[in-house]
Amino acid sequence: MKSLSVKTLRKLPTNFADQDKILSKHHPHRHHFGGRGYFRRLGPGLITGAADDDPSGIGTYSQVGAAFGFQLLWTTIVALPFAAAVQEATARLGLFSGKGLAALIKQEFSRKVLYVALGLVVAANTFNIGADLGSMAAATHLIVPIPQYVLVVVFAAGMAALEIAIPYHQYSRVLRWLCISLLSYVAVLFIIKVSWGDVLQHTFVPQVHFNKTELAALIALFGTTISPYLFFWQTSEEVEELAEHGTESVEETANHLRAMRGDVMAGMSSGVFVMFAIMVTSAATLHKSGITNIGTAEQAAQALEPLAGSLAKLLFTLGIMGTGLLAVPVLAGSTSYALAETFGWREGLSLKMSQARAFYFVILGSMMCGLAMNFVGLNPVRALYWSAVLNGLAAPPLIVMILLLSRRKHVLGEHVSGRVSQTLVTMAAIASTVLPILYFVAH
Fold first, then answer.
1. Domains of the chain, start order
2. Conformational region of residue 193, where left means phi above 0, alpha means psi within -120 to 50, and beta covers everything else
3. The model's pTM
């Protein structure tokens, strides 16, 4: 049997009976979430959750933990349901419409809205790519005496080549295993001395002072956890998976929805747990030692010294490299999906470059723009934090669009988001909108 083409998938919303038949062939390994082969069934949701803890996330969580101690740990409790709800809504859009987020925005909103959305995600992604590449080079320079500008070129060229050369079904399996690099940050919790009473208090009893410094930190935290690039990536990857596995069948559509939710929840839970671990570790080590402003990779690595001692720099470098290798291709890929869907180009990581030249040229262009940022004197570690702030400023209008799309029956048929999902996404939209406003009016 012949696999479904992306062109065929774009016709799904016009016939929901046929759509459900096609969905019965979706995700041959992800149709049930329980039982044996659990890790194998996890798909785009887990990759999204792991990419959420990219170098920008690590830098942001480390900086917030160092600057505020345990004070902002409550954000992890708030971020998890918000992030999971938004990603579930984006996954639902891809799963039941057969279209990526940019294509749906193009279909449902005006051209001005589309171009604003496109501008937001391209700008945020490009800056994020540059910050991630710079931090990977800075971390590697700690253990390898090679100039940072040489390392950043090597990383950019290597990741661009891999994303173009490796077929999607192989590429996605590699991405799943790269998630393991995040465990080094969790391991530190079992080594350092932590006042768990203080941790619990600050986790479940929020304290907000509404000054500019703290509001900027909140914008950065939510921006790196609920990131615009993840919206476009999640939706497009659901479509990609649908195209990739369109020839096999499973029991019923309800199983797909249940499995997708489990996949997304597993990914975002792992991402937020790592967020919690990094913030606690940085607070208990850097903040406690009087380091409240992280300006270099070496300072950030000091948080891991209780676990690794003299090997802390190596452990930090492995974590930054692992998450960077995972996240930078996701960033470039989400930009390419957004542009391809906007201008009607052929798209998909399962296609060869000869089959989707414009799609892959955007990936290369994103990498090159991010690379160029590292030759204008930016501090790579501080840039991680400010890329998270930029994501936080770009997210609100996109979350509102996702909310509106997920409620439209002519887009999703009977699979529109439920009341709980809509409530959480609405709260995420309000929070992400209010924080920047408070920042600009605060003294």
1. 6-441 (1.20.1740.10)
2. beta
3. 0.84
